[in-house]
From TrEMBL:
<dbReference type="Pfam" id="PF01906">
    <property type="entry name" value="YbjQ_1"/>
</dbReference>
<protein>
    <submittedName>
        <fullName>Heavy metal-binding domain-containing protein</fullName>
    </submittedName>
</protein>
<feature type="signal peptide">
    <location>
        <begin position="1"/>
        <end position="22"/>
    </location>
</feature>
<comment type="similarity">
    <text>Belongs to the UPF0145 family.</text>
</comment>
<dbReference type="InterPro" id="IPR002765">
    <property type="entry name" value="UPF0145_YbjQ-like"/>
</dbReference>
<dbReference type="InterPro" id="IPR035439">
    <property type="entry name" value="UPF0145_dom_sf"/>
</dbReference>
<keyword id="KW-0732">Signal</keyword>
Amino acid sequence: MTKMGYGIACALLLAAATSAQANDRKHMLPIKEALASAAADERLGDSVKFYFGNQPSPAVVKRMGMDQTSQKTNAFAKSDEKACNWVFLSALRQMEKRARELGANAVINIASNYKNVEVKSDTEFECHAGAIMAGVALKGEFVKVAE
């Protein structure tokens, strides 16, 4: 490839990356709908309970620390809602895995944490979707609650 051809190829790649980056749509989507989906039934177990925002939880018996996850998924040729719900479940799945590692049976005070900007809601999660990728970041406190 000539220097000129290489330069043109680099410019096109940079332009494509810039336009994909600029195509970042923020969505606040209902937690309840994502958790009521067949995908949630398939991907999440029932040994770890999730409590979002300020939702009340059973009495905390033991605190095991805070953690966060940031997940991305392919959004190409998918609606933003579909891609966002899928990646939200992926983030919860990671939290579920971490809870099991710690011996926790619940994650409380879950908040969206996209680019380290906390958004706390009892009913919605934040997702960012673009032309190629969708992402969700969550943080929460891992605990053992009374059963």
